[in-house]
Amino acid sequence: MDRAEFIDRLQRALSGGVNSSQVGEHVRYYREYIDKEIRKGRSEEEVLGSLGDPRLLAKSIIEANKRADVIEGTNRNYDEEAPEDMFERQTNIGRVIRMPGWLIALIAVVIVLLIIGVAFSLISVLAPIMIPVLIVMLVINYLKSR
């Protein structure tokens, strides 16, 4: 099998499992990969042999795409809406994080309580030192002003 036949088989195998733009992306990727490996000095047969059967490769791509859709939650119907109290944020790697509003409120309350706890802990540790120092400073100021 030569490069053109490999790409043709890959394209036909992908066309039933992923959308047309993804088919184009994957075909373009493997064309560039094959060309790059040949430029490195590998033979076409060696590169195609390392890639294996294009139908098996396509099956792997389709399965990986399905798993990614389920993980990212993109398997949801387009007309299905998220609950109104759902917080949705897109991360820099393309995943969408969905959290209910009550969970966000709970996280905020826990953070505020932690900050208050740390502040009171610091005050309780520093108070035995700071109170006598403040009293001494007040006495010194009082005596200076007399």
Count of β-strands? 2
**What is the chain-wise order of helices and strands?**
HHHHEEH
The spatial strand order of the largest sheet comes to 1-2
Terminal-residue CA separation? 104 Å
Structural class: mainly alpha
* Average pLDDT, all residues: 83
Q: Characterize the biggest β-sheet.
A: 2 strands, antiparallel
The count of helical stretches stands at 5
Helical amount: over 70%
Quote the beta fraction.
5-15%
Subunit arrangement of the protein: single chain
Q: What general outline do the C-alpha atoms trace?
A: elongated
Rg on CA atoms, Å: 32 Å
Low-confidence sequence ranges: 75-82
Describe the fold and architecture.
The structure is a single chain. With 146 residues, the protein is mostly helical. It has a domain at 3-76. It contains five helices and two strands. It has helices at residues 3-15, 20-39, 44-51, 54-72, 101-145; strands at residues 86-90, 96-100. A two-stranded antiparallel sheet has the order 1-2. A hairpin with a 5-residue loop joins strand 1 and strand 2 (96-100). Helix 1 (3-15) packs antiparallel against helix 2. The longest helix has 45 residues, at 101-145. The chain is elongated and about 105 Å long. Mean pLDDT is 83; it is low at 75-82.
